[in-house]
Automatic annotation (TrEMBL):
The name this protein goes by in its record: Acetyl-CoA carboxylase biotin carboxyl carrier protein subunit
Top-level division of the source organism's lineage: Bacteria
InterPro entries: Biotin_Carboxyl_Carrier/Decarb (IPR050709), Biotin_lipoyl (IPR000089), Single_hybrid_motif (IPR011053)
Keywords recorded for this protein, A-Z: Biotin
Domain Lipoyl-binding: from-to ranges: 83-161
Keyword Lipoprotein: no
Amino acid sequence: MDTNYKVTVNNTTSFDSKASEAEAIDAIAINSSQFHILKDNQPYTAEIINSDFFAKTYSIKVNGNLYNVAIANPLDQLIKDMGFEVGASKQVNVIKAPMPGLILEMSVSVGQEVKQNDCLLILEAMKMENSFLSPRAGIIKSISASKGDAVEKGQLLIEFE
């Protein structure tokens, strides 16, 4: 099965590319970052200037012109379509209830300093206990629910400074 990729160049031009198209390009490595490419009987010299594996972005110089290229595979495209960012490192400042439930335990208090992965609270939903771990290190700014409270989906539970 041929995988489709979404390629964006300089944040302005996007096009779809198939893995088989990339494999069909005649490229010879000069060294680990430089290549001689022959496509449609046209020669190109390409050099990878910078690459970010996690963000899937590359700075590539082709025949002396610099291009910033982002490559998204089908999973990356699906994640973006769902409203998430691939490889994004956004700071989480609030914890909201992902579903209606009952607060069984509130493990933190206002002003408390927490580390990433510390248990913040336990929410019972659909007869299951769900532990909420801190997504980051920080200080608890406010708590909007207490032990024994019934909460609705999307309700603010904890806010970080």
